[in-house]
Amino acid sequence: MNTKIFTDGMSELKIDISEAQIEKFEKYSAMLKEWNEKMNLTAVVDDDGISVKHFLDSILPLSVIDMSEVKSVMDVGTGAGFPGLPLKICRPDLQITLLDSLNKRINFLNAVRDELGLDNVVCIHGRAEELGKKAEYRECYDAVVSRAVANLTMLSEYCLPFAKVGGMFLALKAEGAEDEIKAAEPMIKTLGGKVENICKVSLPQSDIVRYIVLIRKIKNTPNKFPRRADKIKKSIG
Q1: What residue spans of the chain are helical by DSSP H?
Q2: What is d(CA 180, CA 182) in angstroms, rounded to the nearest whole number?
Q3: Range of the domain at 81
Q4: Cα–Cα distance between 65 and 172 in angstroms, integer?
Q5: Is residue 59 included in any domain, yes or no?
Q6: Please, are residues 68 and 90 in contact by the beta-carbon 8 Å criterion?
Q7: Checking DSSP bridges between strand 163-174 and strand 209-217, what pairing results, if any?
Q8: pLDDT tens-digit series, residues 71-81
Q9: What is the pTM of this model?
């Protein structure tokens, strides 16, 4: 990674980071590039891109959302570990669960966790619509995060069932997401959530703008949700 761009970006976000934490990010970056030669983890593998579009982007929520009371986090559709692992490196006290539907990504995440010596990180191979029905995961997390590209209506049905009542779902979306957010509000309400805040944030060291949508879980998700993936997709056309 580009350590200068990364540390300058962290300064812009006003987030303190130690040399030991920077070293973990450097190891993570090296492993991402190495493993990406064997499997398709990400299209962004240049040092600047990893520093900004993966690491700083994943850390953005810590700069605008009060997560001081958050202890347990579920990252849905984590892919190569974003945003869950960067959040964990910055907040070592967090208990992180990384969920992805592809086992080869889980193998990578387990390797990164072990190499970086990260405690309380669980990597799960599974589908959100199935695990969201299971008692050991349903409504168990202080925060659910996702940087997945799915439509917010669909993403909310995958993610909100994991959040505790009183907890939050943070969706990291691209610029221009206003219409998508508005269209998702009826389903968010049905799932027991409420849009509490929409943070428009500039991504440091870039001209990219992000929307971080804070959805508060205000009541239990009805038992029929999440539905099967085909029904979720069909319902939004």
Answers
A1: 3-12, 19-36, 47-49, 57-64, 84-90, 103-116, 128-131, 152-159, 178-190, 229-235
A2: 6
A3: 65-235
A4: 12
A5: no
A6: no
A7: antiparallel
A8: 999 999 999 99
A9: 0.96
